[in-house]
Every structure is written in structure tokens, then in C-alpha cells.
Amino acid sequence: MNIASVIVDVPAKQTDREFDYSIPDKWINVVKPGMRVIVPFGPRMVQGFVTGLKNETELKKLREIKEILDLEPVLNEELLRLGNWLTDETMCFRITALQAMLPAALKAKYEKVLRIHEGRKELVDERVRAAFRDRKFISWKDVLQEDNAALFQKQVQKGNLEVIYYVKDKLNKKTVRFVEPLLTSEELAQYAGTLAASAKKQYEVLQFFIENPGKIQLRTLLEAVKASNGTIKALAKKNILAERDEEIYRDPYENRVFDKTSPFKLTEEQSAALRPIQKSIKENSHDVFLLYGVTGSGKTEIYLQAIDAVIKKGEEAIMLVPEISLTPQTVKRFKERFGEQVAVMHSGLSIGEKYDEWRKIHRKEVKVVVGARSAIFAPFENLGVIIIDEEHESSYKQEETPRYHARDVAIQRANQHNCPVILGSATPALESFARAKKEIYQLLTLSKRMNNSQLPQVEIVDMREELRAGNRSMFSENLFAKLKDRLQKGEQTVLLLNKRGHSSFVMCRSCGLVINCPNCDISLTYHRFNDSLKCHYCGHEEDIPKTCPECGSDHIRFFGTGTQKVEEELVKILPEARVIRMDVDTTSRKGSHERLLNRFQEGHADILLGTQMIAKGLDFPNITLVGVLSADTMLHLPDFRSSEKTFQLLTQVSGRAGRHKLAGEVVIQTYTPEHYSIELSGMQDFDAFYEREMHIRRQSLYPPYYYVALINISHEDLMKTAATTEKIAKYVSAGLSPEAMVLGPVASPISRIKNRYRYQCLIKYKREPQLKQLLRTLLEHYQQETAQNHLQISIDLNPQIMM
Ligand code: ADP
Ligand code: ZN
Ligand code: ZN
Predict the structure, then answer these.
(1) pLDDT at residue 471 above 60?
(2) Which of 3.40.50.300, 2.160.10.10, 3.60.150.10, 3.30.70.100 is the CATH number of 457-501+561-697?
């Protein structure tokens, strides 16, 4: 077949389809669906994905593929199909969907070079070997110039040739400098004999290579022979040595040894939950299980044993966990059980590291991937199970195009592979639990904690009463007493500051002015460490005004409670306590998240103070107290899920206490103790919460009873934004059935970001088969204006964040 269908990297409505290109004769059988290519498009060259091959086209004149970027397809057939599905489901461009499935490194510019794999020279095809006669490396570009590219490709597949990637893109520079001799040991010795006596260092370097042939990291070499960079440069200039930056095969967990663990003997409850999963794995049946188990009930052990069954069957597993709980602790449990067969993908890895992990999957060197959201696109070809832990987490939804939810993708992929999906949580999303109750998902329940340890005792403290009793501190009497008690006993405490929703802002006490960002309608956040005000949306930063810009008063004060402020308060009231603070500021550096947790685990601190990021995944035996400083900050967000999110967070964080031998206690401080989500999280009663919340959702016509879709419109001009949203709302209403509701236009909760005004309308509906088509027409209608970026319209068919 000599014609390729290509999706080009020009994300626009008119180009959102396949274009045909002819394949030059020398590349017939080389070009395959799922490969990236460079093709002429109009006057320029663009990247594209080959989506199919064919012999015929309606077009008279075809242009030729210019370059092939991959040696093997980077997307397999199933993922190409998944791309179409994503396009349709999330209303994105096909190119956007295809790119979303690849690691970032494949979007950067790499130069590929080939070389003969060490020790395999004899196995290499003669013609290919001939090409290497006078050189060590051949760039892939050069290979493409030759007529026998397919030959090289075969050798790569057989493992006789290896592919090395040079990063062209400076941004992704994650390389190490290597030095290697260009001569054989004998030649080196010969050459050393000719050196002048003064070139002592050069001589030593040569001796080193005679004794240790092969390439070595420059730094190691310099240390070993105590030579300077200049010495190496001199030898390189004479073509004795070659220097080169190489992408090394990085293993982020390289230096750690994992002791192999064996499966636990399951409890009766666990066995009962695992049995139907195993049956489904054995019978290749596409079932969706909801594993509903309280914190510490042994869900992870069930995941591990399910994956084990899958590996024994010769198949592969995807294990998703929320980004935030991809802690070394979690990863360790999988590495300990499955060792080298595990790849790990999370945002803490560099682009290159992520790419390496992806490559392990692509080359079938691993059987399991443990990763955050995007790991759902792992290029496995024999999936046996997909597991999503903490399935209620909103981070499984991507908040930029393609706006997919990993849960939906999981179910779609598992359907293609005829394998089960396991969704696990102590606080399932309402939508999921409702589906389980309707038997769309199979409900599996773990009601008991391991070792029969009790769920912690939870106490809810009314902060209004504390204030009435004269306590103006951010710690209630009770929490303070318990903190002191743990300090004396040498036990550990986790303190959660629920920051989402508000943070420390600056206000004038005389006139009430809050200092806002000049570009966004949102208050600036105070950062103590450099004493400045910062906007979390656009990055704007300014100094704190000495006097109020409105009334001139100098009574400028900080409100709200940041983690820094809590830390300072702790130092004051409990000077002997050792505190570790975890928030965006202290964890922005790579690896710092892990370092802080390790220090806490090793007992170098008494109190772990942090934001949401400490609520999950911690499983430390010495934590016996959890304090929540402000339970209700999230409750008042303009979001129909705010109660659900509050309940989930409080339950999660409470679950950190007393997971092992020592019993745990939880203190929740709140200004609205009567709110059901706080009250019921205190009782850890998900079932009651579910009933209560479902009732409210039914009354207010929200999911799971109704679907919602959110249209967001933004423009620099306020009138234009409002008017366009008005038009859109009318258009949508007219196109839908009378059952559907269109709310808006209204200003978005954050009504301006980066100087663009934001309006929205919300669609609530039960069944509107024509909705997507309607929205597509809408996007087409505004195509011109959105292409020029004057107007932005984003459509979210399953919004998780309503801001
Ligand atoms: P969850 O994932 O539900 O929060 P975990 O899987 O972390 O719970 O289990 C809690 C603790 O119990 C862990 O330390 C785990 O190693 C242990 N555990 C799990 N299953 C068993 C079992 N069958 N026998 C003994 N210990 C177990
Ligand atoms: Zn003022
Ligand atoms: Zn801003």
C-alpha cells in the first residue's frame, strides 16, 4: 500500500480530518499506522500521525511524506481507535487526542542515531554492517536517505541495532557527558608511546582507557585520573577520544533495593471481594467492579493479587493512583511485589525519565504501570486489568483539552481488551456508587479494617464556641491538649489545613479593601517567605502596600490562615515540637515531597502540617492524632460537589490515624458543625452521607440524576463576553428538548483571569442525543473568532471544577 492517511498537527476545524499522502517507494513497508511523520502542508512542513494505509484515493495529485519520525509505531491500533473515541467524547481535535496519549518527550525534538548493539556485531545483517564500516553511529535521517531503511528497521526490532536519542530541545536536556576512546587498546598504547614526556596527564588518561576499555562518564573519568577537562579536550581534538552528551537510561528508583514480598493470606472479606475479580480476569469478561472499602481495609492487597493473576496469565495491568499519593510508599508496595516488571509514571519525573518508563512499556519490558492520570494511555497490548484507586479523586479528570476522565477511558479501553476494571475507594464518587447500586458496576465491600483495628475516634469542635469562651487561637483547647499529649508520648500528629477555597489574603481593616490581582478578579495571596503578594492564576507578584491604596490607612492586615502562619503559631505555643510543613512552597523542588515524608516517617518530626497533599496514602504506624484546622473552607465554594468533596477529604485524612497497633484520634475544627457532610464524616458514615447527598442532588437536578455540561466563554471585552454568552445560551436552549435546562449566562465564579472576562452557561440534561452535534456546530460557528484568539470557548461535558 502506497498511500498514507495522515492527521496533521494543525489544530483547527478545517484541518481536523485525514489527509492523503503518497509513500515514497523506498519507504513502502516502512511506514505504518501509528507512526509520526513530517509532511508538506500548504507552504510548510508539519508533523502528523499516520492513521491508516491504502491503495486508492480520490485525489489526483498527492504530495509525498517527507520524513519518518519513528522506527516503530508509537500508537498501536487500539490507541488509534481510542483517539477517535476521545475526539468524539470530549469534542477535541483528533490531533489533540492523539498527542494526549504520548509522553511529552515525543513532542520534543529528538535526534535519533543508530549503533550496533554491543556484542551483537556478528548478528547484524551484512548490508547494514557494511554501512557501519567507517562509523560508529548513523543518524536515522541518514538511514532514511538510503534505500534500505526497512533493513535497518528490522535490525532494530531484533535488538541488533540500538537507538540512542539526542535531545535537540534545550529544555529537555537531561543528558550526561560521556567520553570514549576512538581507538582500540593496542592503538591507544601505540599512541601513548608517541606522547611527549610533558603530556603526563594525557598519558594517564590513555592508560586508564587501556585498562578500562569502553565509554565512561566524563565526571567519573576526571575523578579517577585527577585530570582536567582540558586534557580530555586535547585528546578529543586529536580524534583519540570522543565526547558526547547522551541520554542515559534513567531509573528513578535505581538505587533502591526492594525486598520481595509475597501475597498475604487474605481475610474472608478480602477473599470474597477478590473471587469475582479473578473470575472476570479468567473469563476475559469486561466487568466494572466498585471496591468500596474503608481506609486501611486492605484494598491495595486485592489490587496486588488481581495484578498477580493477570501477570500469570501473560497479560498486563494499569494501576492508577492520584498524583498526590504516588508517594514512594505506594510505589514501593508494587515494586516489592513485582520488582522489575513495574514502570512508574508521575509528574515528579523529568520528561526524559517519563519517556524511559513509557519506553519500557512500549518495548514490553514491563507488565505493570503504576501512574497518575495519563498512565491510562500506557501502550500495552494485552491488558488484563485496569485499576483506579481513590476513584473519586477529581485529579483523574484532565482540566485542559482533551477534557477526559481517566475512569471513562479505563472503561473504554477495558471494553476493547475484554478485561475488568476495578474502581476502589473508601468514599466513592456519588456517580459511581449510584451505578453500583443500579448494578451497572458490581459492588464489592470491605467493611472492616485490617488487624481489626478500629476506625479512629472523631471529635468535632465548634470553633464559634471556642471564640465565645475567649479562645482566639487557631487551635481549640481540645486539639491543643491532644497535641501536647502526643508530644509527651512521642507519637506523631498530622495537621491538615484545608486551604482550597481561600488562602491568606490582605485586607485593610479601616475600609475593608482586599488587595486583588490587577488582571484577575481574585485576591492576591500573601507569601511570607519573600514577603510578597502573588496571584495564583496569572503569576502577578507585587510588594505589600504599606498603606491602603483606597483610604490611605496603615492598618493593613493578613487574613486567612496559611500553613506558614500555622507553623509560626505552633512554634509559639509548642516550642518543643518539631514541625514539617508540606505545601506548594516547600514541595516545589523535585523530590522534596518524598524527602519530607521520609523525614517524618523516620521520626525526625512530631507534627506533619500540610494542605490537601498530606491527606492521602500515608500509612505510618506512629500517627495517632489527626487534626483538621478548618473543615469548612471548601463547603462554601460555588460547586454542587462541595459537600461531597468536603466529606471525602475529611474521611480520607481521618483514615491516616491509628492504622496499625496504636489507636487513633481525630479532631475536626469547624464553624458549621451542623452541616451534614461534617457531621457524617465525623461518624465515617458514607452510606448515610450518600443517601443525604443523593436526596439533595435529586431535588436540585444535579448528577447523578442529571448530566451537566459547562460552556465557558472568555474575551477581553466584558460586553462582548456577556453578549456572546447570551447568544450561545439562546442557541443551545433552542436546540435542546424542553427537558433540558440552560442556566446562564452568568459571570463565572472567577470572573476575570489574565485580563479576560469569563462567563458561563451550564446545561443540565437527562437525554439529549443531539447535544454534541449542537455544540460542534456552535464551535464551528465561532471558529473564525476563536482561531484568532479573541474569543475563547471551552466546553466541558463532565465538569469537575465549576470555577
Ligand atoms: P487500603 O488500601 O484499603 O487503605 P491497605 O491495603 O493499605 O488498605 O491495607 C492496610 C494494611 O493492612 C497494610 O499495612 C497492609 O499491608 C495490611 N494488609 C492488607 N491485607 C492483609 C492481609 N490479608 N493480611 C495481613 N495484612 C494485610
Ligand atoms: Zn483602606
Ligand atoms: Zn492574576
Answers:
(1) yes
(2) 3.40.50.300
